[in-house]
Amino acid sequence: MNNRNWWKDRIAYQVYPRSFRDANGDGTGDLKGITEKLDYLKELGIGLLWLSPVYKSPMDDGGYDIADYRGIDPLFGSMEDMDELLREANKRDIRILMDLVINHCSDEHPWFQKALREPGCEEESYFYFRRTEDGQPPNNWRSMFGGSAWEKTPDGRYYLHLFSKKQPDLNWENPRLREQLYDMIRFWLDKGLGGFRIDAIVHIKKLPGLPSGPSNAPDGMVDCFPYARNIPGIGDFLTELREQTFDRYQCVTVAEAAGVPNEQLGEYIGENGYFSTMFDFSYSEPYSYGRGWHTCKNPGEWDFRRWRDTLYASQLETQKVGYGAVFTENHDYPRAIQKFVPEKDHSPEVQKALGILYFYLRGVPFIYQGQELGMTNARFPSIDPIDDISTRNHYRVALEDGLSPEEAIKLVARYSRDNARVPFPWDASENGGFSPAGVKTWLPVHPDYQTVNAAAEEHDPESVLTFYKQMVALRKSEPTFVDGAFAPILRRYDKLIAYTRKGTSPGEKTFAVLCSFSDKTRKVELPFDVKSIRLCSHGGVKLSGNTLTLKPYQSVLLELSAPEAK
Ligand code: GLC
After folding, report:
1. Quick one: DSSP state of residue 491?
2. What are the percentages of helix, strand and coil residues in the chain, rounded to 5?
3. pLDDT for position 195
4. Cα(61) to centroid of ligand 1, in Å?
5. For residue 521, how many other CB atoms are within 10 A of its CB?
6. What spacing in Å lies between the alpha carbon of 331 and ligand 1's midpoint?
7. Which of 210, 404, 413, 435 has the highest CB neighbour number within 10 Å of its CB?
8. Active site residue 256
9. What average pLDDT score do residues 491-507 get?
10. What is the model's pTM?
11. In 194-313, at which residue ranges do the beta strands (DSSP E only) sit?
């Protein structure tokens, strides 16, 4: 592996710092807590550690609203704590990726505060401020968190925010703003970071003139995507960003890049791409939100083949040009099992099966904290403890559309991002060992913490955690899983995801993954000979001749004896 690709064979893990480990006993996770738990991550086999934002922030959107790019929020500790975490992680060969949020900042950032106070100042041009003659918003774009994407200031100007009104968009057209951002990025890379996960980066270019569009809902507004996502000209910004920062370091960059058309993938992650790798979201949500959560279909009701084909297409298109980053969970989604499997079929075994499904795809696998324990959604009894701004918005829209609070909270239980943001359960003690006993944690601990926790699972050979450790070890032991070619197989079977990974160098093995999404036992005719069964989610595998019997929601990883999968 040449130096530029040092990250490719590593396993990544995402920490949501507020909820990982509370070392100072204030109910919120912190940097010292992460440092304390590095050995846990090392033992799991992690080589890249993505931290969701820890910068100074009023926490309107969980830290994705940054008030000081060069400061650590006191909630998480100090810069000394950050330096210590970096040192300790590097010692263990775990490279830290910080979250780089540069499409927008916080309205409490000094730039924005000055722009509010002094119309016409330099900092005003770091944002999209507009005055209109009729006093109406400059256009009809809808913010991604609901409502108009424009907020009025007390002196009658408007500013643009694609996300919450406390997240004003930065004006990338201004070269002086860009230079400030590059300088800040170099400041962090000079500290010895492994790289960045780069937030919402596809939104930094807006369609010139900021035109209104035909409304797609009774609110008279229009989704902002056609006007503010992957807009022509974004490549100039991204090239400059790379040249001024990342290219000068041996760092890895993982872009949050939703909606990049296939024909542009090469520009993003090809040989000379803007980024090392990226998350593709095309298959991460099998349902579409439409106006709100109450319009979504449940698992089992949506079109399985379509979801599967989207996943296959993503893999095939990505391998033509570069290397992906694969995931089923992160801080923006409910737990994966909730998205993909009907509730009646949930079990720790199915958690393992979902693990196999994505772990052997082509790309760096990202584990989101708690996924390796098989955590499920949090089961909030009411909207009160919910912190997440987008959940509160969806809840409000559901009530506006006539749902009762009881009905709306069921939607929260299914779709809210806070379901996966509750404190990490380390053991069975009060507060799950996340915070000391007696402390009120910032979100309630998961109701299952007494059984689903790291300590209990560490010593249980059948646990999801033990299984993840096996998956990691196996993935790291075979070069095929890094560079091997991906090919879908057995497409004629419904409710089945199946693919091969074929070694590209002589002597490298070929593997097949099969994941059944049927709630019935079924037979599958394999088009190849099996050398050995390397991993099975549960219950053993029956193989007679080339007929494989799969149990409900069972996943297997097979090593093939023939070099060719037919
Ligand atoms: C990204 C983050 C999400 C955040 C949004 C705005 O999508 O993952 O958590 O709300 O950007 O910064």
Report:
1. T
2. 35, 15, 50
3. 98
4. 8
5. 12
6. 9
7. 435
8. yes
9. 95
10. 0.97
11. 195-198, 222-223, 252-256, 277-279
Which one from 22, 73, 199, 280 is the annotated catalytic residue? 199
pLDDT of 162 strictly over 60: yes
pLDDT of 565 strictly over 50:
no
Cα gap 50→256, rounded to integer Å? 13
pLDDT tens figures, 409-455: 999 999 999 999 999 999 999 999 999 999 999 999 999 999 999 99
Q: Map tokens 């975490």 to a residue.
A: 85
DSSP secondary structure of 21-84: --SSSSSS--HHHHHHTHHHHHHHT--EEEEPP-EE---TTTT-S-SEEEEE-TTT--HHHHHH
List ligand 1's pocket residues with C-beta within 6 A: 61, 64, 101, 163, 199-200, 256, 331-332
Report the residue among 51, 55, 64 best suited for mutation to probe ligand 1: largest number of ligand atoms under 8 A from its CB: 64
Contact 110, 130 (CB under 8 A): no
At residue 499, what are phi and psi to the nearest 5 degrees?
-155, 160
Centroid of ligand 1 to alpha carbon of 179 (angstroms): 23
- Mean pLDDT of the 389-400 span: 90
What kind and span of H or E run contains 550?
A: strand 547-550
The two three-digit tokens of residue 425, written as one number:
């359960």
Please determine, for residue 1, whether its predicted confidence score (pLDDT) is greater than 60. Answer: no
Catalytic site residue 73? Answer: no
